[in-house]
Amino acid sequence: MKLAWIVAGATFVVDQASKLAVVQGLNLIERGVIEVAPPFLVFRMAWNRGINFGLFAGDADFMRWLLIAIALAISVWVWVWVSRENPGRWAQISAGLLIGGALGNVVDRLVYGAVADFLNMSCCGIENPYAFNVADIAIFAGAIGLVLFTGGDKDAPAKVKGSRKTP
């Protein structure tokens, strides 16, 4: 489980460092938009008080604390689950990505009252109106990884190295 801790820590640091560099360092809060490589990459400041795409952003203060509680509960649950399962390398990496990203967004909600989203990417004539951040990418990749790399068939007989089934 050491690998999951390392990945979670690295994900958290990269997320927070990117937000600090872009949102604060480049003063995106006041500038609003910085065209890096338009339309492929634009820094566009967005404060997400809800979940993905701003869903459930109604009662801001109640929802803020509810989403913090949910993110922490999911992080603990994933950690306990992965600790008990003792999964392979890729599942541990996936768990670390999900936990590190979730904790990065929790810190945003605590510090700013909302998640700082700033990455906006468009391509091929399709304009993406939404912004996201490193934590969002990590949460998505981690969730997909946990689906793909956990939950092997528990009822299948264990394979013994070097043994052969004879007819």
Could you please describe the fold and organization of this structure?
Helix 4 runs antiparallel to helix 5. The chain has 5 helices and 3 strands, in the order ααββααβα. Residues 155-160 have low confidence and may be disordered. It has helices at residues 2-25, 28-31, 60-85, 89-112, 134-149; strands spanning 33-37, 41-48, 115-120. It is globular. A 3-stranded antiparallel sheet has the order 1-2-3. It is mostly helical and 167 residues long. Helices cover 56% and strands 11% of the residues.
Summarize the structure.
The chain has 167 residues and is mainly alpha-helical. The chain has five helices and three strands, in the order ααββααβα. It has one domain (2-149).
Write the layout of secondary structure elements.
Layout: H1 2-25, H2 28-31, E1 33-37, E2 41-48, H3 60-85, H4 89-112, E3 115-120, H5 134-149
Antiparallel strand pairs: 1-2, 2-3
Helix pairs in contact: 1-4, 3-4, 4-5
On the 0 to 100 scale, the average pLDDT is 87
Radius of gyration: 19 Å
Strand order of the largest sheet: 1-2-3
Reported for the largest beta sheet, the result is: 3 strands, antiparallel
Level of helix content? 55-70%
The ordered H/E elements are HHEEHHEH
Beta-strand content: 5-15%
Number of helix segments? 5
What is the count of β-strands?
3
Note the overall shape: globular
The tally of structural domains comes to 1
- Which residue ranges are poorly predicted, with pLDDT under 50 across at least 5 consecutive positions? 155-160
Distance between the termini: 40 Å
Give the helix/strand class.
mainly alpha
